[in-house]
Design a protein that fits this description.
By secondary structure, the protein is mainly α. The protein has one domain. It is 75% helix and 4% strand. The protein is built from eleven helices and two strands; from the N terminus they run H-H-H-H-H-H-E-E-H-H-H-H-H. Strands 1-2 form a two-stranded antiparallel ribbon. Helix 1 packs across helix 3, helix 4 packs parallel to helix 9 and helix 7 runs antiparallel to helix 8. The longest helix is centred in the first third of the chain and has 28 residues. It is globular. The protein starts with a helix and ends with a helix.
Length: 282
């Protein structure tokens, strides 16, 4: 009995540590931590894939809740952009849920992995970019007043920025929502890429706004995982606490990092997510 309790205690500590690391990286990169939790639990701890996915949904909600509050308080999150883009994401998720029974998910995982790998190249070109330059807001951005400012502790000044190519961002968010509905993932990578590459928001603002959005997407599907019994309390409990702890720490760190540093964290994780999607597809 003592050995069983000790074994369970070590397992809980291992799950907590893995979730804390995923929550930290997820809040810094805007990916949410869910895509990092699944390989940590399945490959690292040998857990059943369904239970790992159920725990990852809990991790995404915890990461988003923990980080989003700090980012909103620090004025890093662009709430107008987040609410606008969430409309397209939600519509896409509904479309994906309708298409899911008719499409082969393994092929979709592979295609998503290839698309993410292809997006690494344009993102890598901007690796040394601190702030977007010469961004001209489009008509929709001006009408909706999407441009904003944020206090950058890394540079010690108030940074003003504009938003452009809003229709392109909405289109990418719709695709991100479709992928979320089809594959049951948060697709935080596409959310960050849409804001950083298409709409030209500063990288830290893209990360913070993505964290704000992914919790809404995950919460919409969490009930289904609970109903199917894929959320195991012994796993979901330490995952939620660990992810929340890591997300809070990451939220405190983000504003001290430069946009270049945040992008250097995001790109390797983007490659990791792409390879993980390819592996699940192949």
């Amino acid at each position: 009995m003592h050995t069983l309790l000790l074994s369970s205690g070590w397992f809980v500590l291992e799950v907590f540590a893995a979730a804390a690391a995923a929550g930290l990286l997820g809040s810094l990169s805007g990916l949410g931590g869910g895509v990092l939790i699944v390989p940590a639990l399945t490959v690292g701890l040998g857990m059943d894939f369904r239970h790992a996915v159920g725990a990852s949904i809990v991790a995404v909600i915890a990461t988003s809740s923990g980080a989003a509050a700090s980012y909103v308080r620090d004025h890093l999150t662009n709430l107008r952009v987040g609410v606008l883009l969430e409309l397209a994401t939600s519509l896409g998720a509904f479309t994906g849920a309708l298409l899911a029974p008719h499409l082969h998910t393994r092929m979709l995982f592979a295609l998503f992995g290839v698309a993410l790998l292809a997006s690494v190249v344009p993102a890598a070109w901007k690796l040394n970019e601190e702030l977007p330059q010469a961004v001209t807001p489009d008509r929709l951005s001006v009408r909706l007043r999407l441009g904003s400012t944020y206090p950058d502790h890394a540079t010690g000044r108030l940074v003003s920025y504009q938003v452009t190519r809003v229709p392109a961002g909405l289109g990418m968010m719709y695709v991100a929502g479709v992928i979320s509905g089809l594959l049951g993932i948060g697709s935080g990578a596409l959310k960050v890429l849409a804001m950083d590459t298409a709409m030209r928001l500063p990288m830290k603002v893209s990360t913070a706004t993505s964290n704000f959005m992914i919790g809404v997407t995950a919460a919409a599907s969490a009930g289904l995982y609970f109903w199917r019994g894929d959320v195991v309390p012994l796993v979901a409990g330490p995952v939620a606490l660990g992810a929340l702890s890591g997300a809070v720490v990451g939220a405190r760190w983000l504003n001290r990092f430069s946009n270049r540093a945040v992008r250097s964290i995001f790109l390797p994780l983007l490659v990791l997510v792409a390879l993980q999607m390819l592996a699940r597809g192949l």
